[in-house]
Known about the structure:
two-stranded antiparallel sheet
Amino acid sequence: MSDTITRNFLGLPVSGELRGGSSRVEQKPVEELAPLLQALLDDPTIIEFGWTQYTPYFNDGEVCEFSANELWVRTTAETDTEDREYDDYDLTLWDHPSLGREKYEYVGEGWNRQCIPVAYEGQDEKRYYRVKALNEVITSGAYETALLDAFGDHALVTVRKDGIEVESYEHD
């Protein structure tokens, strides 16, 4: 059963079954990112932060769509030493060495199983949640058009107090 909907395109009637398009998130103005970005720039312990953004190359039958990935953060506690060199993955919020992490609990069974944050572990909960807030909007999809326009595709974006650096990013 199909609902009959009267549509037109430039004054010409449109008939037939219309399929939905992309399920992309509604885009928000980049200016809404400013307070979240500024909160990290104003933090004296945060040296730099950034993310990668790209359209995947692989084709598994699904459409490859541009997206921005998890935020990474380098604080004054993370400096490269001979003993330890950090990479971007080590500095994400999953288990950040100085920002801490959230503990999660799995609730439900099978397809209804969900991972729910239950507690913060670390030394500075307020800082952690400021970083998490920016991470959530960067990865939400709501700013993809603005991020793509500003920094391009296949990019590593690094934000420092004195500016933003964009490098070409190689990925699988």
